[in-house]
Amino acid sequence: MATKASRRLLSVCIVNWNTRDLLRACLLSLRKHPPSSRLMEIIMVDNASRDGSAEMVVAEFPGVRLVRNPRNLNYARGSNQAIALASGDLILLLNPDTEVFDGTLDRLCRFVDEHPEAGAAGCLLVSPDGSVQSSCRSLPTPPVLLFEMLRLAGLPFRPPQDWRYYVDLPQSGYREVDQPMASALCLRRRALDQVGVFDERFPLFWNDVDLCYLLKRAGWSIYAVCDCRVLHHLGASTRQAAARAVVDSHRGLIRFYLKHYVSRYGWLLAGLCIAAIWLAGWARLGMRLLLDPTLLWRAH
Fold this sequence. Notes:
Elements: E1 6-16, H1 20-32, E2 39-47, H2 53-60, E3 65-69, H3 74-85, E4 88-94, E5 98-100, H4 104-114, E6 118-126, E7 136-137, H5 142-152, E8 174-176, E9 179-180, E10 184-188, H6 189-195, H7 207-217, E11 221-232, H8 242-291, H9 295-298
Helix pairs in contact: 1-2, 5-8
């Protein structure tokens, strides 16, 4: 991490892999709609893109601090690289397939400044057609996981509010949540100094859930700020390696259970959940490959 965080500075951290055109739109939106209440720095880590992403940044956005990795180090390590270079007291993790709107960054920074208990605050993600995406999730406890798997199996019922995987959000205002998507997630430097950065044993998925879990356990509050909307094109990088994404997603959830929930719920209940995750992962991967066998070699 940077040795000393600069007050009134927003550090925007972006990790990119082969999303040049979307990355350009993201950086243009930051250039067009910077925060008026703070200075802003942008740090972009490129994970060995083959589409000219890094060259585009050098040519068109010389003010962006660029890190070029010789190979794909994945999201968690790339984010940690960017955070280590960041100087701001607020750090905005931003996906390259997002675009900010006028006023988004000012409202987000103001919210975190006005809520000193906030360790993190996420934005409301919207699709290009204007529809609201499922921007926040609850922690994947055994009851939540059970009801989510039953829902995916097609059973027509709604679990209790506390046991829903995806959280209903208001159209305005804010709500305290377990885990906003890291597609547009603002982190307080002081909170990161306390709990640490991403656990790189979660290279692609569940690293943000793990970090939010640690923040809440340390006493920090986490919010979804629904007045702060960010355009999200959804999954631009993971679609390039869909089969690997399925494997890494389920592997990450199992690792999350081993790290946090075995000691909390015991081996019997946590072990049953881990077995269910493993079986669901293989079933999901098999279905994906059945529908599109080319995913097998595209994963590499």
